[in-house]
């Protein structure tokens, strides 16, 4: 009997991707970046997530390629360890235990057995040191690295505030308005200072530093948008610097190209600036990159640049909403946009511009923000709410319809100020849109009202659309603020919470059917039961109670003392997930409304508060062995923490959770581009084209399905024959061979010849079998069979027909 697998919490997305500078692989085919407490590796060509390096117990603060082996990667973390990875295979090689929080990591080619890191200074608060960490080369996977040498005192904790110069001869570090440069060979320290402000009121504070790879030149970014290029800094008094200025605000990061011929800079303008030869007159721009640039990375071959942006860590205000069409998570993206996030590939499918206004990057400027999102049952309609609050509240409700031709959402109706105050909740009636009933949208607001919106025909002859949305009903209850709303499964009832009271309304006649309350405390969440539990209504209060009411008897069925932050029903079953916050830990309770005892309790999910959760229907039901976790069979539960980490539950190992496409991608991209692989790739491509065109594919001895070719590909190198034996075979395979006849041509010739010589049908049948044998793959490489021409075959038949019996007399 198979033992039931344990339910584990796994991180599947989210986290900051700009916590440290991203790193390209040596061949620029992969991009590695930190994401929370693990490292993600992406394919540059396909943007797919190839693998994740998991093993750190805290935030990863830095990654660097091993200068001695470019297929290995160093990573540092706040957990006090440095890990060495084989990132192409996702294997952890060694763990070096330093014992201090590591805030930045640097690796140099001329230091084979050591790396550099920024650590807190012992006994002093907000003080940090740059140290050299000696990595011992001894056997074992875990070892201590306690041998530390202090290089610089009083450095900044940010990785972009320290940089190493040409061939590692010196290190430059900036903090506040001070620049210090340490020369390793001479063991000399030079310090330079600027005034806090210049004569024009500019901010001279250092914000980042980069060193030229070929020359003695240091580039520094400043708070007023200026860039200074320092030279001759080996002398304390004879140094010089030139100034470049384009950015109107803080320079976020700097990076030199591989040869140092150009300098890249980025800031809050979302523009990547390329300065040529250190000249203020020669510069190129790559504008509208989405949001402020946090880090800039350059590949080793100089062909690719990577920019990390701050919009990766935007606050999610819309919650986790599932698109019924694509099963993608829909949430806040770049400012004013909705992102459709694919859970399987861990990347954005596309972005929908909701606000449709250019975002102005200026601190302190209030701009339209996207705060609410809701989909109709089949995903045909999308409702969004935008708001901006300055002296007066600006509010917009937009209804979007899905266009089948463009396969995107198109704006149908814009409603200005649908409520006089903030909208607190919004939901569609969950009824099949192919039925006679038209869709309905309900919004609840702090203006003590809830409103029902329906589709009406547009009578305006100049209108571009035949239908639009209009308000059908306005409801209130004792002038209390409306806080939540939801429809029953069949759409006949609407529940709206007004502070401490839940009201239930008939969605057709708008009659108030009943009210429920459970003082003290305001209602935080409400939802209806589904399927066999549709007669129950569940609510959670902010005073730590979870209540279940029976709609038939209008009585309290049961209640439990639980501080529920998130209440999420599964759309495909009776199960409801409740996430609580107890003793600085989040816990999960899964239950059915008709049974007060939970089906599954998962404590200590994470140390962060969980803000949102969503059930995502599975395309194929999952095979679950344990009855305790059957609630995960048809849907998967995802939840988002207040640190923007997306998590889910799984009973699979990380290897099993890696998608087949990602595995195949990793295998195919790891193949070297040799002439032999190009030859096989050409055969694979040609075979695929033949299959796509419906051709009958007749395999010859060059095909990769040959047993000999398979044997050659899958046999270990140390047991293969010598190169002198394989070389002639390989050269012969590169020669252009005579094209084989198709099966139809062979069949036509056989039929024609059978009409000419019916008495020799047996002999012709033997010839056909011989020709068919010639088409089969050879059992050995290099073995060839000569094919007779048509004239030779006719001569052979004549010879076989002749009577040679007279020879027997001799």
Question: Can you describe what's shown?
Answer:
By secondary structure, the chain is mainly beta. It has a five-stranded mixed beta sheet, with no helix packed on it. A hairpin with a 7-residue loop joins strand 11 (114-120) and strand 12. Helix 6 (743-756) packs antiparallel against helix 7.
Walk me through the topology:
Layout: E1 8-14, E2 23-24, E3 30-35, E4 38-43, E5 49-54, E6 60-66, E7 69-77, E8 81-86, E9 91-97, E10 104-106, E11 114-120, E12 128-134, E13 142-144, E14 148-155, E15 162-164, E16 170-175, E17 178-183, E18 188-193, E19 206-211, E20 217-222, E21 226-231, E22 240-245, E23 251-256, E24 262-267, E25 272-276, E26 283-286, E27 293-298, E28 305-309, E29 321-322, E30 329-332, E31 337-342, E32 347-353, E33 369-375, E34 381-389, E35 393-403, E36 408-416, E37 423-428, E38 440-445, E39 450-457, E40 467-475, E41 482-487, E42 493-498, E43 501-506, E44 512-517, E45 523-528, E46 536-541, E47 545-550, E48 555-561, E49 564-569, E50 576-582, E51 585-592, E52 595-606, E53 610-617, E54 635-641, E55 645-650, H1 654-657, H2 660-669, H3 675-692, H4 707-714, H5 723-734, H6 743-756, H7 761-775, H8 790-801
Parallel strand pairs: 9-13
Antiparallel strand pairs: 1-55, 2-3, 3-4, 4-5, 6-7, 7-8, 8-9, 10-11, 11-12, 12-14, 15-16, 16-17, 17-18, 19-20, 20-21, 21-22, 23-24, 24-25, 25-26, 27-28, 29-30, 30-31, 31-32, 33-34, 34-35, 35-36, 37-38, 38-39, 39-40, 41-42, 42-43, 43-44, 45-46, 46-47, 47-48, 49-50, 50-51, 51-52, 53-54, 54-55
Helix pairs in contact: 6-7
Domain WD repeat-containing protein 75 second beta-propeller: 320-644
Biased composition (Acidic residues): 745-772
Subcellular location: Nucleus, Nucleolus
């Amino acid at each position: 009997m198979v033992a039931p697998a344990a339910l584990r919490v796994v991180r599947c997305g989210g986290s900051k991707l700009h916590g440290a500078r991203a790193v390209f692989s040596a061949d620029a085919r992969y991009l590695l970046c930190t994401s929370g407490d693990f490292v993600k590796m992406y394919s540059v060509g396909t943007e797919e997530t190839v693998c994740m390096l998991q093993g750190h117990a805290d935030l990863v603060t830095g990654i660097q390629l091993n200068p001695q082996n470019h297929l290995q990667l160093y990573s540092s973390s706040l957990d006090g360890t440095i890990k060495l990875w084989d990132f192409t295979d996702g294997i952890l090689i060694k763990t070096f235990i330093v014992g201090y929080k590591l805030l930045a990591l640097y690796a140099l080619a001329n230091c084979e057995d050591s790396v550099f890191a920024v650590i807190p200074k012992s006994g002093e608060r907000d003080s940090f040191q740059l140290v050299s960490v000696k990595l011992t080369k001894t056997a074992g996977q875990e070892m201590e690295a306690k041998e530390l040498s202090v290089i610089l005192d009083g450095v900044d904790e940010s990785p972009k505030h320290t940089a190493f110069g040409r061939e590692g001869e010196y290190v430059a570090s900036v903090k506040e308005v001070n620049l210090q440069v340490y020369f390793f060979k001479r063991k000399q320290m030079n310090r330079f200072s600027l005034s806090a402000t210049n004569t024009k009121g500019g901010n001279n504070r250092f914000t980042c530093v980069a060193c030229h790879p070929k020359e003695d030149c240091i580039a520094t970014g400043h708070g007023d948008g200026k860039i200074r290029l320092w030279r001759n800094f080996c002398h304390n008094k004879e140094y010089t610097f030139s100034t470049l200025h384009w950015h109107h605000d803080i320079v976020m990061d700097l990076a030199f190209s591989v040869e140092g011929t150009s300098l890249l800079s980025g800031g809050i303008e979302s523009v990547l600036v390329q300065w040529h030869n250190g000249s203020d007159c020669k510069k190129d721009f790559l504008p509208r990159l989405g949001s402020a640039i946090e880090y800039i990375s350059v590949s080793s071959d100089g062909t690719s640049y990577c920019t990390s942006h701050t919009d990766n860590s935007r606050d999610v205000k819309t919650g986790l909403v599932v698109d019924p069409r694509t099963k993608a998570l829909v949430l806040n993206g770049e400012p004013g946009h909705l992102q459709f996030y694919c859970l399987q590939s861990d990347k954005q499918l596309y972005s929908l511009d909701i606000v449709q206004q250019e975002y102005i990057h200026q601190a302190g400027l209030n701009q339209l923000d996207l705060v609410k999102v809701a989909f109709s049952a089949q995903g045909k309609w999308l409702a969004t709410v935008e708001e901006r609050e300055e002296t007066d509240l600006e509010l917009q409700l937009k209804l979007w319809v899905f266009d089948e031709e463009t396969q995107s959402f198109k704006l149908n109706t814009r409603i200005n100020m649908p409520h006089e105050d903030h909208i607190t909740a919004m939901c569609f009636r969950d009824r099949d849109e192919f039925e006679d009933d038209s869709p309905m949208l309900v919004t609840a607001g702090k203006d003590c009202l809830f409103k029902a919106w329906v589709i009406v025909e547009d009578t305006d002859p100049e209108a571009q659309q035949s239908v639009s949305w209009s308000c059908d009903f306005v409801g209130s209850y004792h002038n209390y603020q409306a806080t939540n709303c939801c429809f029953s499964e069949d759409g006949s009832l609407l529940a709206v919470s007004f502070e401490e009271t839940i009201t239930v309304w008939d969605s057709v006649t708008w009659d108030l059917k009943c009210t429920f309350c459970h003082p003290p405390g305001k209602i935080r969440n409400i939802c209806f039961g589904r399927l066999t539990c549709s007669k129950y209504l569940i609510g959670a209060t902010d005073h730590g109670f979870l209540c279940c009411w029976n709609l038939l008897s209008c009585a309290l069925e049961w209640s439990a003392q639980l501080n529920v932050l998130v209440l999420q029903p599964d759309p495909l079953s009776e199960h409801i997930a409740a996430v609580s916050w107890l003793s600085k830990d989040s816990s999960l309770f899964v239950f059915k409304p008709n049974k007060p005892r939970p089906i599954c309790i998962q404590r200590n999910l994470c140390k962060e508060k969980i803000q949102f959760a969503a059930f995502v229907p599975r395309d194929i039901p999952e095979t679950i062995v344990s009855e305790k976790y059957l609630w995960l069979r048809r849907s998967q539960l995802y939840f988002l923490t207040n640190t923007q980490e997306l998590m889910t539950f799984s009973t699979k190992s990380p290897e099993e959770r890696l998608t087949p496409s990602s595995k195949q991608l990793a295998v195919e991209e790891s193949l070297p581009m040799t002439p032999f692989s190009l030859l096989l790739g050409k055969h694979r491509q040609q075979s695929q084209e033949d299959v796509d065109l419906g051709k009958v594919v007749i395999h010859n001895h060059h095909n990769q399905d040959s047993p000999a070719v398979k044997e050659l590909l899958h046999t270990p190198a140390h047991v293969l024959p010598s190169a002198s034996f394989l070389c002639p075979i390989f050269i012969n395979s590169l020669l252009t061979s005579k094209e084989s006849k198709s099966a139809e041509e062979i069949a036509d010739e056989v039929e024609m010849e059978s009409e000419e010589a019916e008495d020799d049908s047996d002999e012709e049948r033997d010839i056909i079998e011989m020709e068919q044998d010639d088409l089969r793959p050879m059992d050995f490489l290099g073995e060839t069979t000569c094919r007779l021409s048509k004239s030779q075959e006719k001569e052979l038949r004549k010879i076989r027909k002749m009577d040679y019996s007279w020879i027997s007399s001799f």
